[in-house]
Amino acid sequence: MNKKTVLILACPVMLLLMSLKTAFIPLQGKKPLTDSLKRPAKFGFGRPATAQEIAAWDIDVRPDGKGLPAGQGDVKKGKLLYAQKCAMCHGVDGTEKPGVKLPGNALVGDTSATSKPKTIGNYWPYATTLFDYMRRAMPYNLPGSLSNDEVYSITAYLLNANKIIKADVVLDAKNLYKVVMPAKKLFIMDDRKGGPEIK
Amino acid sequence: MEKRGNKDQKKATGKISRRTLLGGVLAAAVLPVQSLFADEVQPETPVLPEIADDPTKIVGPGPGPLGKRSPFEQPVRKPSDISSRTPLQDLHSTITPADLHFERHHAGVPTIDPAKHELLIHGLVDNPMKFTLADIKRFPAVTRTCFIECAGNFRTGKAEMTPQDILGLTSQSEWTGVMLSTLFNEVGISDKAKWFLAEGSDAAIMTRTIPIAKAWDDAMIVYAQNGEAIRPEQGYPIRLLLPGFEGNMNIKWLRRIELSEEPYMTREETSKYTYPVKDKIRMFSFELDARSIITYPSYPQKVNKGWVEIRGIAWSGRGKVEKVEVSTDAGKTWQLANLQEPVLSKAHTYFRYLWDWKGEATEILSRVTDETGYLQPTLAQLAEARGVNLGGYHMNPITAWQIKNDGTVLFKPETIK
Hints:
heterodimer, A: about 200 residues, B: Immunoglobulin-like, 5-stranded antiparallel β-sheet, 24 strands, about 15% helix
């Protein structure tokens, strides 16, 4: 059998497969996407994760304080750390200056809802988010390089600079989540569910 | 939403940030293509192989290991320092070639060894488990075609804008992977779990909280895009796929899922991807509202008198496209467009409408209605519903194109303030 014959014989098979594929489309539309065969209770793929493995990656912090690590920080240390590690992108004091576009977002502003730009003071609803985000992603050029104490300190500095906490507050796992952010009252959950209303 | 352009970096003072360096690297990465043309010919002139007068008289090159585009076709994405946009005006149907899929990430594209990559699922589960990529591929697989769209996919401001410029942060692929519900069944989920955190293994360690209902509905963990392994820019080796939900939630380079009673309020779901609605800030807008755009004719194309087939795409994060209407008289009257079958849920749907253009100056527009009965609004309607400080997230206004007497096509930028 030469190549041409194989090709000719293969063509009807391909056409058949294509028409089968088309025939399945209406089925897909009606049924949820599940596999075709009866399933076992468990497949048994994967393996148990160890406590150490979970601890190594589980760095998230929730608004109720769950996940905040041991350690502490203050405004004074935070100010120094900010100058060393953050100011190059977010500006000397974190504020937006007319005519200067910072590589990073402005972080400090007043706490009125109508102020621009969006800053921690006027737009961040949870203080715990600051800790969570900085620990995982900042500084941009050395992500994940800050110690927990350093993150607490920079958090304290930024909250103080935005006039949310006093200069003598020492932040730790027991009090950071209790800080009430000025913007919290502005946030509403989307309650749209489709339908004709423009909202 | 993108506000920073390359020009902004030049104004940065002090030490060089990685963002700036990264921008430089990205610029360098696209240079070879540009310089290839710039050195030898004018940028507008494609580099073409020697063309025989009669191709039937010359035997062409033989088969090769990888196919390539015709040198006559040069669709390219449009990169900034934080994203790259799909050339929607160059596409003829709804599958986006993988190398033209839009790209958006917050700390660059990580290089991940697939042999070492693992997914951890823990929190409110019966059995915290780790899955290798090989494990994930052993589970029953599912293939689904759907769009992904960045929630900050709206730009306006000048007439010389292409569909790529206006809303190029949406693309569509055929994705293959495992239903998230299959993996959740494997670990066993506590009744207390109402949300799950998804986390990437990029340098941003990107996180978003997702309602658990999505996992039981249609969420997937995918490892293939248009039949082959997904691209690094799309999350290689695995990404979360949440059909219809804002792009940022479809966590790429997925490494961890944690089940929880409550949302985590991560940076991206609080200080980003939220937007003013009157005197409040709306958060947790997951589904993308129905939207459409005419991609032909659009800027910078030109039309000739006579029959013009108006073409474009429509989609909804809430289900199927019910209908698309086209107006060729600046929105005074609307006509039904033909929809290309199959119309899939939460998928770009191609529409076409035949128009006999007599040469008059006019405006052409499209508007979609999705299966929930939602009709794509105008920018003015959005402003009326939300206030004039709209921000840039979850914007889906009708796009109008101006047709000039000479056939020139221009975007019609609208302002609301």
